[in-house]
């Protein structure tokens, strides 16, 4: 007899936290007190209520007269931060187009805005006081307008990274080489780039290890830690952290699992090179609670010799600046992540900025020359001088997925379409929404889930769950999670013998896929975790239900009673944002229409690379092309040199 429960909390509602930084500029709010340009920008949906209210506060605090153009630029700078940028590029302000393709708002020219700002009280200070909440700087991308807080955070990042890269750890090149050889002795399949990354991390205070899913980043981190221990002549004090609780749990499980797998009697060579580490969140490491300053900061530095930051692409500029301030200048800092993925939901895309910024020009140095030149092509060599190594060999999937992901990254829509049409690519396809194969595969997935859930094997049920996932760009609407979940439930309800499922009357049943929507430390499940309901016998031999969650490919599943899970929703489909950090056997990616502002290269790349073996893209060639060609645009001053304007000082 199956036990039934109430529907999971939050089912059928949109979950907080999976919205990207760029969602809906309008926020549906008209501010009637706004006047002139601000009012018009609000009316046509360029500014939302919060942009106008924050601008109003800054203007009132200045106590001086602030001109209309200056106010508009300020509100656009507030909007830019809301959309994930750290500043407003005055020469590149995006304004939506009307149905005739004309911009809905005529903006003043860049020059007019710059002139107004440079003469105005928000930058040069008011007559009654020195409060200057804005900063304007010249850059390769033209003038950049900052809210002072974000400028200061960028300055912290710029200054500390420059100081750290101006010095090198005092290590002997031969000792590094010997340590790298020892760390990879049991890794006959190690790519030269993995070895190079380990050597670079040992020879620089800051290094950046990038690569797509399955390129062996975590594997390499384990070996880097071993190299550092060897050259230090003893255990180093290591901190391993990640921006979210879920990323921490996955990283921990992955490192523990690698250790256990390598230590198993089935393997020939025991692994002595995966140190035992306890991963924490960046907030936890810094002792940083919401609304207060971090406990560890300049003046009270973290004690660690080595700090590894995983999933750095999800790190906001604020978190990055706090982290850098807290790290000893003589501690090694290793950033790990995939810069092509969707960035933090807050302001900043720091990993992408670090990778994309102009190379400092410093060459790798003779110590690494032989390791480097065998592998890297011209433009990558100077990047190596900045400690950046990209892993390119995929240990999880090969073939079309990796090729198409790479064509997406290079923005080559024609190449993507050509690859899709090529008979050699049989693991990625583009289909129309009505293609019968979609329902066939989703039903096969739901059936496998249901059958495995009833047998009570957590591993089988999780294998079934991870076998396929439908991913959408939007949460709501017929193209979104809501519409597709409803559709999938309808399909499953028609399967003979399958319990009826619908968003209106759904029950906990074996095989039901569950998405956790908030961190739950007590049960060790995190926002974004997916689990599946399974039938099992409780301690008294009575049948009951539990929800099984997988931590990693190596570790035992976690099981939690449904009654103890508070914040969940159904996982028949999920947003691409939420799927970040997970991989599934096959993935069905639902593209919204070509004009959806969510449809971007980063979104498509993230979705495609969630698949280990097969990707079906549901959409049209036009929507695919739009996705490849539209980049998430996050303005930042970290990618180029900044120069102050002589009449617009930025120091307080
Ligand atoms: N040199 C290697 N030799 C053998 N196996 C390897 C090697 N490098 C990586 N692997 C294996 O490849 C798989 C993927 O590696 P890993 O988890 O380190 O990738 P990743 O880049 O961290 O992926 P993700 O970003 O998805 O976490 C793991 O099973 C790992 O053990």
UniProtKB/TrEMBL annotation:
Q: How does it assemble?
A: Heterotrimer of RecB, RecC and RecD. All subunits contribute to DNA-binding.
One GO BP annotation here? double-strand break repair via homologous recombination
Q: What is this protein called?
A: RecBCD enzyme subunit RecD
Q: What else is known?
A: In the RecBCD complex, RecB has a slow 3'-5' helicase, an exonuclease activity and loads RecA onto ssDNA, RecD has a fast 5'-3' helicase activity, while RecC stimulates the ATPase and processivity of the RecB helicase and contributes to recognition of the Chi site.
Q: What is catalysed by this protein?
A: ATP + H2O = ADP + phosphate + H(+)
The gene designation is recD
Q: What keywords are annotated for this sequence in UniProt?
A: ATP-binding, DNA damage, DNA repair, DNA-binding, Exonuclease, Helicase, Hydrolase, Isomerase, Nuclease, Nucleotide-binding
Originating species: Gordonia desulfuricans
Question: What EC number(s) does its UniProt record assign?
Answer: 5.6.2.3
Task: Please give one Gene Ontology molecular function term for this protein.
Answer: 5'-3' DNA helicase activity
Annotated UvrD-like helicase C-terminal domain residues: 571-618
